[in-house]
Amino acid sequence: METKQVKVMFLILSVIMALACRHQSEAQSPVPSPEACFAPIKSVKGCPEALERVKYGDFKGLGKDCCHAINGLPGDCFPIIFPQKPFAAYFVKRHCRGQSADFS
Questions:
Q1: How far is it, in rounded angstroms, from Cα 4 to Cα 38?
Q2: What is the dihedral of CA 84, 43, 68, 62, to 10 degrees?
Q3: Where is the secretion signal located (predicted)?
Q4: In this predicted structure, what is the pLDDT of residue 50?
Q5: Using an 8 Å Cβ cutoff, are 91 and 97 in contact?
Q6: Taking the complete model, does pTM exceed 0.70, yes or no?
Q7: How many CB atoms lie within 10 A of CB 54?
Q8: Phi and psi dihedrals of 48, rounded to 5?
Q9: 64-71 helix and 47-54 helix, angle to the nearest 10 degrees
Q10: How confident is the model at residue 5 (pLDDT cuts 50, 70, 90)?
Q11: Helix (H, G, I), strand (E, B) or coil at 24
């Protein structure tokens, strides 16, 4: 029975080593800083306030310029801007697609 225990321990150790090596070899993309995410939004008058209202379902303040700033953000910025609202990015992008169509 001792050889069976050795085989099981060897198997467990092999799995742990494989997982540890795999994790180290994967490159992770850098997360943008909150300042870099909010800078384009802050540059548009009324856009930060409009995004704050979006958290409560009010999309009226999202105009063409604000939508342009939002559409230029990398996807990694949305969890920073809406940390507790994972679906907000979808609704904002959807609203902004309609806004850009309205102003074309």
A1: 58
A2: 60
A3: 1-27
A4: 93
A5: no
A6: no
A7: 23
A8: -60, -40
A9: 80
A10: confident
A11: helix
